[in-house]
C-alpha cells in the first residue's frame, strides 16, 4: 500500500493543558495525558535497556564497521593533496558478542582501579568502541563525560579539569591532543586508546611524556576477561552523562543528564517512529558526543536495530574521503533509517540538483516533470502521483537518487537546526520517505517536539513529544505574546522527565534557565521563540540572541534570514551581520565551489582558482543578486537582505572552530576572525 503523506488538517496533534509555573500557553501530546518516562516494563536505566536488548536479540547483528583496504593520496589540479580511503564491506558484532565486550571492558575498568565516584571522559570520533566504552562505564555506575573530538585545547582542558575526569577514552589522533595539554590536566590518571587501522599509536612514548597509564582499548577488555566483576548498576536518578556542548559562544557548559532523563526521550520517540524494530538498519555518522546521535543510537539498540558506523566524509560514493569508484558508507550499508542535521540534507539536495542541471536535455525535463507530479500529490488532495504512477517514476527517475543514501531509506530524522521547507520537500519527493523534523536541546536530552510521519507540512517542528509539555511565555521586549492573533507566540519553555538537572558546577547559569514549579515539574527556558498552530504543532520563529535592532528601529532575526537565504545555489554556508549603527545588513558567504565555478565558466569569467574567483567583481555581483532574488521570493524585508557580501573560498568546519560539531554557526568566533572584512563591508 502506497504511503500517503497528505496531512489531515483536522487532526489534533497537540492539545492545551493546564500546568504549573509561570503563566503561559501550554500544549501536550494529544495521545498521552501526562509525560511518559519508560515504555519498557521494569527498565529505568540505560544499561538495563541495553542488557535487555542484548538478551532479546542475542544473535542479531548490532555494531558494524568497515574494513580499511587502503589509504591513498590524490593530488588536485592546483597541487593540493587529499587523503582518499578505499573501504570494504561491513564487519559485524552481534548483540550477544557486544554485551560480552561491554562486560569485559567494565571489569577492565575495575582492574585499573576506577570506582563509582570516578568520571570517565570519552574523547573520540563516532565508532563501535565509543558505545562499548559508554555502556561499560554505565555497568559500573560511572558517569561519562562526553567531549567532541573537534574541541580546541582550551575547551578540552576546561571540560576535563572541571569534571575531575580520572580517565579518558580516545583515539590515536585525540591522544596527540591530550599529550599537548598534559601539563594542564590535573586529575587524569589513565588514558585508554582505541586502535585505528593504519594509524600507529606509540603508547610507551605517550606514557613517558604525560606520566599517565596509557593502555589500549583491547588490553582493557583483556584485563576484564581475566578478572570478571559483577555489575554495579545505577538507578534512574543517577547522572549518566555530563555532556559538553561544542558551544556557539564561550567555553562549553556541561549538561548533567540522568538515566531517567535520556530514557524518557527514547520512550517518547519510540511512539513516533513507525514500526521501529529489528528489521531496521541505522547509519551512524554524527558525533556521539551530541545528544541527537547518542539518543538515536541508544534507541536503535534498545529496539533490536543494526547500527553501521560511517563518517560525514565517507557517507556517499562522492564524499571527500572516498576513493573514486568505490562505495561510500550508505551504499555499502543500505540503511533504512538515518538521522541528519539540515546541513547534510542541504548538501544532498544541492548535489542532486547540480547533477540534474549538468545533464540537461531530456533527463532534466523528465526529472522536473516527475518532481512536480509528486510535489502536487504531496501538497494537494489528489493522489495521482501515487500507486502505479509512483512506481513508474521511482523506476525511471528517483531510483538513482535514492541510491545516493543506499536506496532503502524509509524514514529520516532531522534535528540540530531548522530545516528549510525547500530541502524538506526535495528530500520527501526524491527519497520517497517522510522526514521527522524534531526540536530539542542538549538541556532537554534532545526531546521537545517531533513531527509525525503523516504530517507533510513544512517549516514546523511537530507537536510535543509524549515526554514533554511545551509552554509559551510572554517575551514583552521582543513583542511576542501568548495573546497574539492568529496564533499564540512567546519564548519556548519545556517541561517533563526529559529536562536535565542543569549545568555541572555552574549553579548561577542553572538557576537562570531551569525552574521547578509548585507541582515539582522541572522547566527549561530555551531562549527560542515559537508559535503554536491550531493543530498543536510548534513553529520556531525567532531566537532571543539572534535579534538585532537596526539604526531606524527595524528588527532583524539573523538566524531566520540565514536559514532562508541558504537555499541559494551559491551558498555553502553564510553569516548575516547587522551593525545597530547602520540601516542595512552585510554577509559573509562561504561559496559552493561547483556552482560558482560553473557560472564563471559559462559567462566567460577568467580565474586562476576559487580564491581568485571570490575576489572578482562579477562573482560578488552575481552572488549578491542571487541572494536578493531568493530574499524577494521568500518575502524577506528589504532591510533583511544583505546589501554587501564578502565571498569566502574555505569551508567552515568544526576543526576551524567556526561551526560546532553539529555544524551550527559559532557566530562570535566567525565575527572575531572576520572582523576586518565585516568592517570593510560597512566602510566601503
From TrEMBL:
- Its EC top class is ligase
Reaction catalysis annotation: (E)-4-coumarate + ATP + CoA = (E)-4-coumaroyl-CoA + AMP + diphosphate; a long-chain fatty acid + ATP + CoA = a long-chain fatty acyl-CoA + AMP + diphosphate
- Indicate whether Lyase appears among the record's keywords: no
Asked if the record carries the keyword Isomerase, the reply is no
Q: Which GO terms describe its cellular component?
A: endoplasmic reticulum; membrane
The UniProt record lists the EC number as 6.2.1.12
What is the top-level taxon of the source organism? Answer: Eukaryota
- Name the GO terms of the biological process aspect: phenylpropanoid metabolic process
All residue ranges annotated as the AMP-dependent synthetase/ligase domain in the record: 86-504
Q: Which Pfam families match?
A: AMP-binding (PF00501)
Gene3D superfamilies, per the entry: N-terminal domain of ligase-like (3.40.50.12780)
Transmembrane spans: none
> Which residues does UniProt call coiled coil?
none
What is a single molecular function from GO for this protein? trans-cinnamate-CoA ligase activity
Q: Do you know which InterPro entries this protein is assigned to?
A: AMP-binding_CS (IPR020845), AMP-dep_synth/lig_dom (IPR000873), ANL_N_sf (IPR042099)
**Cross-referenced PROSITE patterns, in alphabetical order?**
AMP_BINDING (PS00455)
User: Which family is it part of?
Assistant: Belongs to the ATP-dependent AMP-binding enzyme family.
Q: Protein name, please? A: 4-coumarate--CoA ligase
Name the species this protein comes from.
Zostera marina (Eelgrass)
Taxonomic lineage is:
Eukaryota, Viridiplantae, Streptophyta, Embryophyta, Tracheophyta
Amino acid at each position: 500500500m502506497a504511503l500517503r503523506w497528505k496531512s489531515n488538517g483536522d487532526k489534533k496533534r497537540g492539545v492545551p493543558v493546564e500546568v504549573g509555573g509561570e503563566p503561559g500557553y501550554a500544549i501536550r501530546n494529544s495521545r498521552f495525558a501526562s509525560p511518559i518516562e519508560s515504555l519498557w516494563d521494569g527498565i529505568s536505566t540505560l544499561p538495563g535497556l541495553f542488557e535487555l536488548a542484548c538478551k532479546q536479540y542475542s544473535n542479531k547483528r548490532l555494531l558494524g564497521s568497515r574494513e580499511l583496504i587502503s589509504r591513498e593520496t590524490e593530488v588536485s589540479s592546483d597541487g593540493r593533496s587529499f587523503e582518499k580511503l578505499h573501504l570494504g564491506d561491513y564487519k559485524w558484532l552481534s548483540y550477544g558478542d557486544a554485551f560480552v565486550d561491554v562486560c569485559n571492558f567494565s571489569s577492565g575498568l575495575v582492574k585499573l582501579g576506577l570506582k563509582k565516584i570516578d568520571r570517565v571522559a570519552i574523547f573520540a570520533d563516532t565508532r563501535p568502541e565509543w558505545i562499548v566504552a559508554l555502556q561499560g562505564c554505565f555497568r559500573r555506575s560511572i558517569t561519562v563525560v562526553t567531549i567532541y573530538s573537534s574541541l580546541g585545547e582550551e575547551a578540552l582542558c576546561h571540560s576535563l579539569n572541571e569534571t575531575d575526569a580520572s580517565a579518558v577514552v580516545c583515539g590515536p589522533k585525540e591522544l596527540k591532543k591530550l599529550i599537548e595539554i598534559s601539563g594542564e590536566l590535573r586529575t587524569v590518571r589513565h588514558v585508554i586508546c582505541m586502535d585505528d587501522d593504519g594509524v600507529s599509536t606509540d603508547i610507551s612514548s605517550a606514557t613517558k611524556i604525560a606520566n599517565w597509564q596509557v593502555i589500549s582499548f583491547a588490553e582493557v577488555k583483556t584485563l576484564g576477561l581475566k578478572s570478571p566483576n559483577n555489575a554495579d548498576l545505577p538507578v534512574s536518578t543517577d547522572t549518566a552523562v555530563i555532556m559538553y556542548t561544542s558551544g556557539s559562544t564561550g567555553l562549553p557548559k556541561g549538561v548533567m543528564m540522568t538515566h531517567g532523563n535520556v530514557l524518557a526521550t527514547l520512550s517518547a520517540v519510540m511512539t513516533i517512529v513507525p514500526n521501529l524494530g529489528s528489521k531496521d538498519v541505522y547509519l551512524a555518522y554524527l558525533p556521539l558526543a551530541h545528544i541527537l546521535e547518542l539518543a538515536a543510537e541508544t534507541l536503535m539498540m534498545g529496539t533490536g536495530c543494526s547500527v553501521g558506523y560511517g563518517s560525514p566524509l565517507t557517507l556517499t560514493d562522492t564524499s571527500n574521503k572516498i576513493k573514486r569508484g568505490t562505495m561510500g558508507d550508505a551504499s555499502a550499508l543500505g540503511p533504512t533509517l538515518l538521522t541528519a542535521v539540515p546541513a547534510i540534507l542541504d548538501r544532498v539536495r544541492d548535489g542532486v540538483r547540480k547533477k540534474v542541471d549538468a545533464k540537461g536535455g531530456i533527463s532534466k525535463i523528465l526529472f522536473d516533470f516527475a518532481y512536480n507530479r509528486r510535489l502536487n500529490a504531496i501538497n494537494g488532495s489528489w493522489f495521482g502521483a501515487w500507486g502505479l504512477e509512483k512506481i513508474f517514476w521511482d523506476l525511471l527517475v528517483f531510483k538513482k537518487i535514492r541510491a545516493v543514501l543506499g536506496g532503502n531509506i524509509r524514514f529520516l530524522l532531522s534535528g540540530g537546526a531548522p530545516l528549510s521547507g525547500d530541502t524538506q520537500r526535495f528530500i520527501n519527493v526524491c527519497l520517497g520517505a517522510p522526514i521527522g523534523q524534531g526540536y530539542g536541546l542538549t538541556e532537554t536530552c534532545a526531546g521537545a517536539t517531533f513531527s509525525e510521519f503523516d504530517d507533510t507540512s513544512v517549516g514546523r517542528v511537530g507537536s510535543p513529544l509524549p515526554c514533554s509539555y511545551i509552554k509559551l511565555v510572554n517575551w514583552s521586549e521582543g513583542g511576542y505574546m501568548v495573546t497574539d492573533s492568529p496564533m499564540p507566540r512567546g519564548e519556548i519553555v519545556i517541561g517533563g522527565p526529559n529536562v536535565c538537572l542543569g549545568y555541572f558546577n555552574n549553579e548561577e547559569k542553572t538557576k537562570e534557565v531551569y525552574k521547578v514549579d509548585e507541582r515539582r515539574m522541572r522547566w527549561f527556558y530555551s531562549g527560542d521563540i515559537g508559535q503554536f498552530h491550531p493543530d498543536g504543532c510548534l513553529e520556531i520563529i525567532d531566537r532571543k540572541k539572534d535579534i538585532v535592532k537596526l539604526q531606524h528601529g527595524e528588527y532583524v532575526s539573523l538566524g531566520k534570514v540565514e536559514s532562508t537565504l541558504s537555499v541559494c545555489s551559491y551558498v555553502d554556508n553564510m553569516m548575516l551581520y547587522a551593525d545597530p549603527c547602520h540601516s542595512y545588513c552585510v554577509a559573509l558567504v562561504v561559496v559552493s565551489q561547483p556552482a560558482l565555478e560553473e557560472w564563471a565558466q559559462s559567462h566567460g569569467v577568467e580565474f586562476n582558482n576559487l580564491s581568485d574567483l571570490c575576489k572578482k567583481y562579477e562573482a560578488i555581483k552575481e552572488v549578491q543578486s542571487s541572494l536578493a532574488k531568493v530574499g524577494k521570493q521568500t518575502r524577506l524585508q528589504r532591510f533583511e537582505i544583505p546589501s554587501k557580501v564578502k565571498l569566502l573560498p574555505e569551508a567552515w568546519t568544526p576543526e576551524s572552530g567556526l561551526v560546532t560539531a553539529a555544524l551550527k554557526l559559532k557566530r562570535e568566533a566567525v565575527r572575531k576572525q572576520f572582523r576586518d572584512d565585516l568592517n570593510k563591508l560597512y566602510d566601503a
